[in-house]
Design a protein that fits this description.
The chain folds into 4 domains: about 110 residues, 3-Layer(aba) Sandwich (Cobalt-precorrin-4 Transmethylase, domain 1), CATH 3.40.1010.10; about 130 residues, Methyltransferase, Cobalt-precorrin-4 Transmethylase, Domain 2, CATH 3.30.950; about 120 residues, Rossmann fold (3-Layer(aba) Sandwich), CATH 3.40.50.10090; about 130 residues, 3-Layer(aba) Sandwich (Rossmann fold), CATH 3.40.50.10090. Helices cover about 30% and strands about 20% of the residues. It is built from 18 helices and 20 strands.
Length: about 500
């Protein structure tokens, strides 16, 4: 049975610019074949068992010839697989998608094209340059600045192009910028025509250089591919319309050490402020080695007065076990339910469970302070939590005469990375590393020490979600640069903004 190939435009680099249809195809894929210009972060939408193959064509090198890529796509689909060919920008705009589609058609392989946002328009937009404007530009031409080297003659008529459109957008032309500028000027374009060179458009690493046809080659010397070139009067609007590069965290590389399942909120928050999020999960949440203690406690819920959760993970694992024990949330009636922190409370409230109390300070000490005026002697507390956790809460409650039963809801372990993967992710060195729990600190430090990379932690800001996490950072012999005033993701993001504003 033949499979199918989807030629999917990955967009220009910002993961948020992937289309909904592109995301849906990634979620169904058996194999993803992706390019250097396709943001690898998009692979998180693929299944865990999906085969990911990089055929990236980096500037100045070619890891796999185009003919071999064509054969790879056809052979995978011939085995009945759903194949996503993930290409930077749009597959049919200087992406060689047309050639791949022709090869598939010739081989009798079903295919579908999923258009993407082209870097030609997106990079300009993120640089504050509208390609058309009622007063300045009524036409746009997309042109390649690097033709097939095997062609005997050029098919680019610079004289017609120079006069044929108000705005020119050139792909793959940065290495030939001096020759292109000269050709356009010779063809009649004024040497004073504004020009912008935009490298890594739409990403936090975006770099924009402006000038004129007369001087842009000199000004942009050193800027390497990938880059697009915009020629035309609309470039002058950048001074007024530049927005992306003025965002609070623009250009910052920030590491997220939370589990992949929990990283999305922090990731989205910092990306919306212009930063590049680098996910390096230092913990992986696993089921406990035995559910027996948890199940026994659930079957005796009527014997407890309080049910206290210290993390969202504890909530999820506890609620997952209720049906396995023949129970549901109605069996929590009569229990006083406490949560440390709004994230934990939100996890409960999402299933319709009302939280009776939450401390002002989102740590165990805050919960104890909240219960300071409550008589707990003789009361029974059930605390589902991680296998390894601080004992201050159960110990203090027991000292006050309460009966406390702590059950293991999950355990955290350090994930494994392929050799060299950590160094690749951390190059160049990040501007900040975020920690949302003590376990993320200890595990991340051990991960880096195992690869000889601990020194990276002394080169950027270490950002902590609260005082307990900060204490763990200091115990590792490291300095805390950022601590959230409120121990929440929102508080951590605000603290990062304040830190980089002060140190701008």
């Amino acid at each position: 049975m033949s499979g199918k190939v989807y030629l999917v435009g990955a967009g220009p680099g910002d993961p948020g610019l992937l289309t909904l249809k592109g995301k849906a195809t990634l979620e169904r894929a058996d194999t993803v074949v992706y390019d250097f210009l396709a943001n690898e972060d998009l692979l998180r939408y693929a299944r865990h068992d999906c085969e990911n193959i990089c055929v990236g064509k980096r500037p100045g090198e070619e890891t796999l010839p185009q003919e071999s890529i064509n054969e790879l796509l056809a052979s995978k689909a011939a085995k009945g697989k759903i194949v996503v060919r993930l290409k930077g920008g749009d597959p049919f705009i200087f992406g060689r998608g047309g050639e791949e589609a022709q090869a598939l058609a010739l081989a009798g392989i079903p295919f579908e094209v999923v258009p993407g946002v082209s870097s030609g328009c997106a990079a300009a937009a993120y640089a504050g340059i509208p390609l058309t404007h009622r007063d300045l530009s009524s036409s746009v031409a997309f042109v390649t600045g690097h033709e097939d080297p095997s062609k005997s003659t050029t098919s680019v008529d610079w004289e017609k192009i120079a006069r044929g459109a108000d705005t020119l957008v050139l792909f793959m032309g940065v290495q030939n910028l001096a020759e292109i500028s000269a050709a356009l000027a010779l063809a009649g374009r004024s040497p004073k025509t504004p020009v912008a060179v935009i490298r890594w458009g739409t990403r936090a690493a975006q770099q924009t250089m402006t000038g004129t046809l007369a001087d842009i080659a000199e000004k942009a010397e050193g800027i390497e591919a990938p880059a697009v070139i915009v020629v035309g009067e609309v470039v002058n609007l950048r001074d007024e319309l530049n927005w992306f590069e003025l965002m609070p965290l623009f250009g910052k590389r920030i590491v997220i050490t939370r589990t992949r399942e929990q990283a999305s909120t922090l990731r989205e928050s910092i990306e919306q402020l212009g930063a590049e999020a680098i996910e390096i999960p230092s913990i992986e949440v696993r089921d406990p080695q035995s559910w027996q203690p948890m199940d026994k406690a659930i079957n005796r819920l009527q014997n407890f007065d309080y049910l206290v959760f210290t993390s969202a993970n504890g909530v999820r694992k506890f609620l997952q076990r209720l049906p396995a024990c023949g129970r549901d949330v109605r069996d929590l009636k009569g229990l006083q339910i406490g949560a440390i922190g709004p994230g934990t409370a939100a996890e409960l409230e999402a299933t319709g469970i009302r939280v009776d109390f939450m401390p002002k300070e989102y740590v165990a000490e805050g919960l104890l302070e909240h219960l300071k005026g409550v008589e707990v002697r003789g009361k029974s507390f059930l605390i589902p939590r991680a296998r390894v956790a601080r004992d201050v809460l159960p110990r203090t409650l027991e000292e006050r005469g309460a009966r406390v039963e702590v059950v293991e809801a999950y355990e955290t372990v350090r994930p494994e990375f392929a050799p060299g993967e950590l160094e690749r992710l951390l190059t160049p060195a990040p501007d900040a590393v975020t920690f949302t729990s003590s376990s993320t600190v200890t595990n991340f430090v051990k991960l880096l020490e195992g690869e000889g990379l601990r020194g990276i932690l002394e080169r950027g800001a270490l950002a902590s979600i609260g005082p307990i996490t900060s204490e763990t950072i200091r115990k590792q012999g490291l300095q805390v640069s950022v601590e959230a005033a409120e121990s929440t993701i929102a508080g951590l993001v605000q603290a990062l903004q304040d830190y980089f504003y002060r140190n701008a």
